[in-house]
Amino acid sequence: MHIRKFDFNYSRRMFLEKTMMGAATAGVLAPMWPELAHSADVSKAYPDELLSIEMYTKGKIKPGDVLTADNVDAVKDLLDPVTYKQVKTMSRRINIVESTRDVTKLYPASYLETTLKNKGKAKFGPDGNVYNADGKPWIGGSPFPDAKEANEFTANLTLSWGRHDYSQYAVRDWDIGPDGEVSYQYDFVWAELNATARVDGTTWNNRADLLRLQSVWFTSPNDVKGSSFLNTWYYDQRKFPDLIGYLPAFKRVRQFPTNQRFEPLVPGITLFLSDAWAAGDPMQTWGNYKIVGRGPMLGAIGNKNFMGGSHPNYERPVHGGPKGKSFHDTYMELIPECVIIEAEPTGYPRAPVGKKRTCIDVRNGMYVSYVTYDRRGEIWKSFEPAYAQYSNDKLTIKDVDGKPAWSWVAVICHDVQSNRLSRFVQAKEVTGGYKSTYSEGGIDVYNKYLTPQAIGRLGA
């Protein structure tokens, strides 16, 4: 018989106390990061009840089960309201798997190593930006791995989105209309190059004034092929990025309003620039950051979500909705501790968004759920990512250091007010021969993908 030393009510009291304190380290039984210095296993920081969905739900849900409308109420408190609604009323199914205890499976290996090496060196300057101890831009990894306050969690998301110095995602997207049919299908490529806050500790091209260059270009279908956009982010998080784009109808590169971040890039898609990594806008163009909740959560973070070996292009089976096409298969597990961060778009007086809530796994500082609300306070959109270390029993994809790669694998973005939904995957390859990769691979990616001239060339 298993004797519970720390039951659910004990953990709930601990999380409530942490939330009321406003600043608290990760872990319940012990601070998590000192434990990780000795072992990658989080078991000493959390009781079994927070690492076993079966124990947490008193046997109502266990690994191998599938969440449906019939049993989802047993874990309603572990889901954001949109995901709960999808399962309860839209015939979505979610596969439940064992909790990940090995933290090394929740990071790119080099990013985790850099985070550990630089732990304790970050600080906020008088201007609200993150700096190294010498007053220069941050030198790489998560600046606040043991984050305690809302702005520290947000800085971890903002400074390095994909947690690689260069990431290139080949994305295949399906946009589902209210009738459940696929109304649009797009292929596009998303590239991001960090100038500062790099894992390799360098400053790209001596541009200490920049945080990142990020571009996106559509390769299919023909009516949007060539639509391309380039964001140039400054390191100073008080400044708006420069946004330029190429639209085939105009046949030229043009400047876009930098606050035009709450609109779809192409017809039908529910993805906005503001949605990227739940931190698609400079940190200080949002404000009133606060922790409004803390506790366990269900999230899609485990290796089961990697489709390598199951599908040649890493695409996913689909189900649910009026026509069985609305949702791709997802594997969720019990995350022992998440924080919920709330913020408001203080730099956008005409923004249609009133606030956002971001749920972040404290073990790796990555968001697992992101929900935006309109100006009336009503839920507008959800943005649900799935992550994986790219390794399973069929296939392992290695990074440049020979370690299993880690990245996002899929997203479900649901506009609940219009009931339009975008689901997209990080594919192996998309139209145009573009492939997903997490290094520059000897290619001059700046001149090829990340300049105004490159945007015009990609568009033409």
UniProtKB/TrEMBL annotation:
A Pfam family hit: DUF1329
InterPro entries: DUF1329 (IPR010752), TAT_signal (IPR006311)
Name of the molecule in the record: DUF1329 domain-containing protein
Taxonomic placement: Bacteria, Pseudomonadati, Pseudomonadota, Gammaproteobacteria, Nevskiales
